[in-house]
Amino acid sequence: MNTATAVRSPRGAWARAGVVLVAVLTVDQIVKALVSDALQRGEERDIVAGIKLVNTRNSGVAFGQLQDGGAIVAVVIALAIGALLVYFARHAQLPLMWLPSGMLLGGALGNVVDRIREGAVVDFLKLPYWPAFNVADASITIGVVILLVVMERGDRARASA
Is 106 part of any domain? Predict the structure, then answer.
């Protein structure tokens, strides 16, 4: 059987997704703590070629959307996490589905921890012409891209079966 299309154990997929979730959450929280200790809130430091290390807060969702959205932001996040969990439960057997699922859940939970502790998400990396972001945001963005690839591969595998 082709390993790219092999059906995997859903239990093993949940375990692997859990490991990725914990890794993303841990790295995200450690880096945010280091930045918060090194920089005052609002402070910026040039790193290289317009890339800055910053200490800022985001009360919205991805890239500052819905700033100060409060309850709306909480509902959007809860719905997104719930939808991802349902999707993963239904498709956990797909090869590599655990990877983007763990990345998305770890990133979402990393930002939820900030919202609970700080009232907003700690962002620390600022690229030219791009809003400040953090490890959790990067994990979510990369996780979405990988999820789309995994879904496409799954659709192709089902179509050829």
Answer: yes
